[in-house]
Design brief:
The protein is of the alpha/beta class. It has a single domain, classed as TIM Barrel. It contains 8 helices and 9 strands. The strands form 3 sheets. The chain has a 4-stranded parallel β-sheet with strand order 3-4-5-6. The chain has a 3-stranded parallel β-sheet with strand order 7-8-9, with no helix packed on it. Helix 4 links the parallel strand 5 and strand 6. The protein is globular. The N terminus and C terminus are likely disordered.
């Protein structure tokens, strides 16, 4: 992809095209390719909204919280780069993919997550790719451009509320694992045995309890 800003002098980069100036792409939708340089299992995780309230940088930053708390990184990514570089690494943004959202909006949110991930890697930040899908229409896109036989992150919080939610999550996870064959899964949220037990013998699944659980909610 050509750097839009180099062609249209004086234009404000409202599309964040500059974040993809060195990106490579895959698939018909041209999602950025995210290369996982090495497998590193985080000791701890911290929400993006808390990164300015800690002096413990021996942890990975995650975005498993309301979009309103991290939409700002898309609007002004450069503002947060130096702070994010202080931490061990980052799990790529978890922009929401609700099933009642138009498909194009779901795909756009996958693209935005990959764009931020690509840019952080270009700037020397270790990134674990977050895999988020809405329904069967977005599972393939959720896997495009992600290294196989490596490490991925998945959030289960809010995905297991109803029987429909549970079935969609379980079926989608099965496809993701078949496509990517991850060696390690970073799991943020609950780990029900009826979904994850069949993977335990061949995949290292590291569970991190979400904030709601740890507060007894």
């Amino acid at each position: 992809m050509a750097n839009v800003n180099s062609i249209r002098k004086g234009c404000k980069d409202v599309f964040n095209a500059s974040l993809l100036s060195n990106a490579n792409y895959v698939g018909a939708l041209e999602f950025p390719i995210i290369k996982t340089s090495s497998i590193e299992i985080p000791k701890k995780l911290i929400r993006f909204s808390k990164i300015f309230k800690t002096d413990d940088f021996d942890q990975y930053v995650h975005f498993y919280e309301d979009d309103v708390n991290f939409e700002r990184i898309w609007r002004n990514p450069q503002k947060y780069l130096d702070k994010l570089k202080e931490f061990k690494g980052v799990i790529s943004p978890d922009f929401s993919l609700y099933r009642d959202m138009p498909l194009i909006m779901q795909l756009w949110n996958i693209f935005r997550s990959r764009t931020i991930a690509n840019w952080l890697i270009e700037n020397g930040v270790k990134v674990i790719p977050n895999i988020r899908f809405g329904d069967s229409r977005t599972i393939n896109a959720a896997c495009e451009g992600i290294d196989s036989d490596s490490i991925i992150a998945i959030g289960s919080h809010g995905c297991l509320k109803s029987s429909i939610d549970k079935n969609i999550f379980a079926d989608g996870l099965d496809i993701v694992i078949k496509k990517l064959s991850p060696k390690v899964i970073i799991l943020y949220g609950s780990k029900p045995s009826y979904i994850f037990q069949k993977y335990d013998e061949r995949i290292k699944i590291i569970q991190y309890q979400d904030d709601f659980y740890s507060k007894g909610r």
